[in-house]
Amino acid sequence: MTSKKKLIALIVLGLLAAVNFLIMPYYYAGIVLLSIIALIGFSFVPAHGCGKKLKIKVSGGGNGTKAKPYEFFVRIKNESIVPVLSLNLSVITENMVTGEFQKEDIITTLGPKGKKEIWIRGSTQYAGSIRAYVDNVSVSDPMGIHQKALEFEADGNYDVFPQPVGVELSSDVFSCYNMESYRYSQKKKGNDPGEVHGIREYQRGDSPKTIHWKLSSKLGSVVVRELGFPVENDIMIMLDCNHLDSYEEADKKLNLFMSLSQELLSKGLFHSAGWFNHKENRFEKCDIRDDDELLSALSRIIKNRMVTSEESTIARFFVEDDIEKEHSQYLYVSYDNRDVERLMTYGRVRIYGQNEG
Predict the structure, then answer these.
(1) Which of 170, 243, 244, 331 could serve as a FRET partner for 250 with CA atoms 20 to 30 Å apart?
(2) What is the CATH number of domain 171-178+232-353?
(3) What number does CATH give the domain 48-160?
């Protein structure tokens, strides 16, 4: 029964008690009437006097695998001397990759300066960051006649990492990787004297070694060379976050991404990772040179929702001006073939997903 229906029921009972008291003006009939009036009046007190000094915190977090249950603790503290007769809240645990969620509704009480700890435990079949947060927080009288909504921002994360799967890289991935012949960035400056990025006027602090003496004498002013930045790796693992048919698909893509990166690192091959971040609405890229950088990339990726979008991941890659398109090889982890031919004009493309291997 809703709070509105409860209030209507009490009012109806109060009217019946009033009629009964008028017909039979005995003291016991008056007691019933006064009790109902007192109950209705008392129901307003908790909703307006409680919860003003309520603190809620979600803790737990950490990381693990799909085989290991996750747990969170919701810690509630009433810093007021006024008791909370009925606290209502929902604790939601959501996989940030798939959107899979579980909801637990909680009704509890807290005395003056009281504390309470609620244990939330669960598990998931799929990789992703599990976010636990509180929602629909309110205080009310014990009968739930009057409620007062409260706003709280309390959440925590537990990272469930992918599980590596057996994946073999084609020999052409290694044969095309040239560790000696660096290419140079067209946008990024560096410190390699073997390649000049551009020419500009001398500024205080510039190294004398960068001064272009011959050109300076012709121009009549001191100019320096901006040195080139060598691109260290040829390979990008591009994870498709713009296509999702099932939770299983998302999980398989994360497993493949992790496995490919680990395989490249085992061969001593640095590489990049790229994916579209739906929350930030931009394509992201990071370099992976060791296991720590792989885990750092994964911790960002598993907090990103996979959804089916009108534009493919490849299309979003091309429109991002800040991301350089200088890799000679792209390992595309996807179940979506949109715009693959366009990516092939930039380098060799190998798809891992529906046709993995």
Answers:
(1) 170
(2) 3.40.50
(3) 2.60.40.10
